[in-house]
Amino acid sequence: MMRKFVTAALAATGLLASAGVSAQSFTYEVDIAPPTFVGGLGPDGSYGRGGTTGGPYTTTLANGDTATGTLTCVGMDQPPSTSLFAVHLACDAVATDGSTRTSVLYGCNPIGEDDGPLSCVGGIEGKTGPNAGRRGSVTLHLRGENSVGTGQWYE
User: Fold this and answer.
1) Which pLDDT score is estimated for 28?
2) According to the model, what pLDDT value does residue 27 have?
3) Which range of residues forms the domain containing residue 119?
4) Backbone angles phi, psi at 144, to 5 degrees
5) Which of 18, 66, 76, 89 is the most buried (most CB within 10 A)?
6) What is the sign of the dihedral through the CA atoms of 73, 52, 86 and 3?
7) DSSP states of 111-127 as a string?
8) Rg of the chain over all Cα atoms, to the nearest angstrom
């Protein structure tokens, strides 16, 4: 489950790093590396387990412009029944040219089986570049290494 959680976070973050100054919707795709895990308790070792991952993203804005960059995420599986979300992710998306950095916070839950796809929702905040100080929301369908999502910057 952690692998999917971390993947979701990466995808969402990529969208944020490339949006323009006006309120605008976007879609994104991300390909990430398998996570590196640390810790974990419980029968299968996943309770409270953390991990890191990253990879390239491509964002397409509503006006047709595209942007690329790299996502870096840390995530943590949550013990059963202690949280609204099974996985939490914190990510940074940095544009390929380094001009923009966006942070994202995600909450994700499995769709069906624990090791199946994840459905995620989250918030984004521009840290540097044209979106610095702006916020928005994102969704993510994490389905393996090619995950997709949507987002919206707010004015």
Assistant:
1) 94
2) 96
3) 2-154
4) 90, -155
5) 89
6) positive
7) SSSTTS-EEEEEEEEEE
8) 15
